[in-house]
Design brief:
By secondary structure, the chain is α+β, with helices and mostly antiparallel strands. Helix content is 21%, strand content 30%. The protein is built from 3 helices and 18 strands. The longest helix is centred in the last third of the chain and has 25 residues, at 212-236. The two termini are 58 Å apart.
């Protein structure tokens, strides 16, 4: 076992970027051996093949997560879970779906060293927002599709989500629940109901032949009541409207690694 460990240490001390293979010696108990290769990376060694697994007594493969560490693809990389600070240029009104633009408000550097400027302040963002708002909802989903650098080059963001300045999903804004329309709808419903009631003859339980004028009045009152009810139902079905003003601060949440060709230089 010691000899195998020494051989592994010697193999991994080669030149950076090289690969070396080691074979772990057998261990007692429920363990087993397996050939393992390592790749020297900027932050240590990364397994590129299998790994030795030594199960505890009574253990099961389901109790172990077999994971590999992968070396960064490039030093000009912004890894997933990073954020891009930005502010809205255009406002949002959820009455209709549409496009929205924003401005990156801080320089964004590579995730590994923090030395390389990859996205400069002043870059523009183009996105879309959804207007499917339900009653009681106070936030809008915004997805960012494109990032345009100051030199007019661009990259696709593939609908990366936008979070507010607190990190919460979606954008919060001023909500108009249209209570004025709802109140007017209630009043109209009451008025139409009263009109229909007055248009109906009061017989007191006695059946008699109605005149033509009474029949017309009753029919008109019934139609008015039905029309009023339909209008009121449409008013009640109007969803809340969310307004978000220009200048709203937010973050683009990087949900996949962004690999750029190099440091940004404005030409």
């Amino acid at each position: 076992g010691a000899a195998g460990g020494a051989a592994g240490a010697g193999g991994s001390g080669g030149a950076g970027g090289g690969a070396s293979a080691t074979t772990a010696a057998g261990r007692g108990g429920a363990g087993h051996t397996q050939s393992t290769a390592y790749l020297d990376g900027p932050s240590g060694q990364y397994a590129v093949q299998g790994a030795n697994i030594n199960l505890p007594e009574g253990g099961s493969p389901k109790d172990i997560l077999q994971a590999q560490r992968f070396a960064p693809v490039s030093k000009f990389e912004i890894v997933a879970s990073s954020i891009i600070p930005a502010s809205l240029i255009t406002g949002i009104d959820s009455t209709l779906p549409g496009l929205v633009s924003a401005l990156v408000r801080e320089d964004v550097y590579d995730s590994h060293t923090g030395k390389y400027l990859l996205i400069p302040r002043g870059s523009r963002l183009v996105g879309v927002y959804d207007n499917q708002v339900q009653y009681g909802q106070s936030r809008l989903l915004v997805a960012w599709q494109r990032l345009i650098f100051p030199d007019t080059t661009s990259i696709d963001l593939l609908n990366m989500p936008g979070n507010d300045s607190g990190g919460y999903a979606g954008f919060g804004g001023n909500v108009d629940n249209h209570f004025g329309l709802i109140f007017n709808a209630v009043l109209l419903t009451s008025a139409f109901a009263v009109g229909a009631e007055l248009a109906s003859p009061q017989t007191g339980g006695i059946t008699y032949n109605q005149s033509t004028g009474q029949l017309v009045t009753q029919s008109v009152g019934s139609n008015i009541a039905q029309t009023g009810t339909n209008i009121v139902n449409k008013d009640l079905s109007i969803p809340p409207t969310i307004h978000i003003a220009p200048g709203y601060p937010f973050f683009v949440f990087v949900d996949r690694d962004i690999v750029l060709p190099g440091v940004y230089h404005n030409q």
